[in-house]
Request: fold
Amino acid sequence: MSEQVVKKKKSKLALVSWILSLLYLIYLISHFGGGITSTTGAEQAGVAIATALVFPHMLCVGIGLIFNILGYFLNNRAFVLVGAILYSVSILLFMMYFMFVTIQMILSYVAFAKMKKVE
Reply:
């Protein structure tokens, strides 16, 4: 009698969501990080203030990305849900950039709903 290995199907929606989040986080870091190093004087102070305003949003997206990646690779719907909630919170933290996180948030919520409950 041989045991069959049942391979769990990974969520493609969660995959797309975390790839988009990774690209967006790379954009955020390069845009705000590059602004600090390429300016001088008063411009540098302005860029530092802008970066400080965006940092909570950036942090929430980064932590949401980590949970989304864990949810995808571990096939754990709870991690995907936490990632989706963190994307929602990141929208509330910096509403001017809502359009960059909305797709990831929706994809994560749908991925959570479609993933099978593990008992």
In short: The helical segments are 12-37, 42-74, 77-93, 102-114. Residues 94 and 102 are 12 Å apart (CA to CA). The first helix runs from residue 12 to 37.
